[in-house]
Design goal:
The chain is an all-beta fold. The protein has 1 helix and 25 strands. The longest helix is centred in the N-terminal third of the chain and has 4 residues.
Length: 287
């Protein structure tokens, strides 16, 4: 079943959000840079404020990271040529992806210091993007022989796959809420669109005045975050869509582009931005 989410044109810049807000209170902005890295992206945050993401070192290799109470820990799947960390739940379980020596992408779960590979049977690639407090895992995989993306949900060892109602379209699962709602994005002939999958209903999310909307996070308050491209300028903005369908536009002050990747129950946001010199940094907006 498919629907369309009606979104009013109510948007605010982050510069306005940095003032006191009646509902949320004061917010603060922090840039995140892994030491000696030439690129850092923050991808996930849990209720304790632990942050995961990935960085590129000076040799050009990509590694995952965990940022906890100001200290960084690098995450590398054994013998992988690349490791990305995408999400973390309140228990500290981390999901992501890695590339093996042949270049094939696999998903993984990092739990209590132990890696478990996640591979959808027969898939050309697998990536784990989101994990709920109950350790339900969502992501996407490649369908042979074309490699078309479909979404998956792994719950209590049981695998469920899902796709856009039009089976010819690419579907990428991004995050899952405690209530089982899944957000992500799909691609058709007009571009990329966000979606919310709730109890079998597939609802499209498109930000007014934008194109290529991608939904990346959802918290227990049903607040959905992601990013989109402004049609008139081609600038990338982050967004927060609340349960009343009100959109808040999020821009890091002075940034060329802003990507919001995830939110936690208290409304903290993480993502990345490009500065005026073209360097990519992670960020944390804390309430």
């Amino acid at each position: 079943m498919q629907g369309k989410r009606s979104i009013p044109l109510i948007m605010f810049a982050l510069a306005m959000l940095l003032a006191p807000i009646a509902v949320r209170g004061q917010v603060s902005f922090t840039s995140i840079d892994y030491p000696s890295a030439n690129l850092t992206v923050a991808m996930g945050i849990n209720s304790q404020g632990e942050i995961v993401g990935w960085y590129r070192d000076i040799t050009g290799k990509f590694h995952g990271f965990l940022l906890d109470r100001g200290g960084f820990v690098s995450i590398d799947y054994p013998l992988a040529t690349r490791t990305d960390a995408w999400a973390i739940n309140p228990a500290g379980d981390i999901v992501g992806s890695y590339n093996d020596s042949t270049g094939k992408q696999h998903g993984y779960l990092l739990q209590r210091g132990l890696f478990t590979t996640i591979d959808i049977p027969g898939a050309t690639f697998t990536a784990a993007f989101g994990i709920s407090p109950e350790a339900d895992i969502v992501g996407h995989y490649g369908v042979p022989p074309t490699g078309k993306m479909n979404g998956f949900l792994l719950r209590n060892g049981k695998l469920t796959t899902y796709d856009h109602p039009n089976p010819n379209l690419m579907t990428c699962g991004g995050a899952i809420s405690p209530g089982g709602q899944i957000v992500g994005h799909y691609q058709d002939g007009t571009g990329i669109h966000g979606f919310l999958l709730n109890e079998g209903v597939f609802t499209t999310i498109d930000i007014p005045g934008g194109k290529n909307t991608q939904a990346y996070g959802i918290n227990p308050e049903d607040e959905i975050v992601g990013f989109y491209t402004e049609v008139t300028t081609n600038k990338i903005h982050g967004f927060l869509l609340d349960k009343w369908n009100v959109v808040t536009q999020i821009d890091v002050p002075g940034a060329m582009n802003t990507w919001v990747r995830r939110n936690n129950p208290r409304g903290d946001l993480v993502g990345s931005y490009v500065d005026t010199f073209g360097k990519t940094h992670g960020f944390l907006i804390r309430h």
